[in-house]
Amino acid sequence: TMATSSSVVVPVVARGSDEGVLQDAIVEFIKFLLYMRQQIPDPYPALREEALSHPSPSGETPTHPSIPPRGRLTLTQRRQRQFIQQVDMLFAVLGELVRTRRDKLRKVALAFGTTPAHPREVFILHLPDEFAFGHHSCSSTASSYSW
Length: 147
Description:
Elements lengths: L3 E10 L4 H19 L7 H10 L21 H27 L5 E9 L2 E9 L2 H5 L3 E10 L1
Antiparallel strand pairs: 1-4, 2-3, 3-4
């Protein structure tokens, strides 16, 4: 099938350190896309709060296989918590990347599909040169490609 493309320009005005603004912009872009492209059922902050509000597993044995005991996570809750932990690690790595390699960082790509090798959609956040050179007002472009 043929790929389609679209672009959106997003104005960004920095308040505070450039690294913090750039990291926040990338993280919020990812959270927005995860929810809007229906990769997660709720906005990320609500999903994170729900996943982390469940009590930690206590090692109790279930009285019946279909009823989890108090303090024991269901399979869905464990998967949800694991997903949140992985996304939080991604955000931490992005923060470290922005702090250490900001001058080299020009694009952030997100691929949605069954595998990264065969995505159905790719979103690319083109970062402005102004972030690398310390200016505080600029625009970012987000591109979307669908197959």
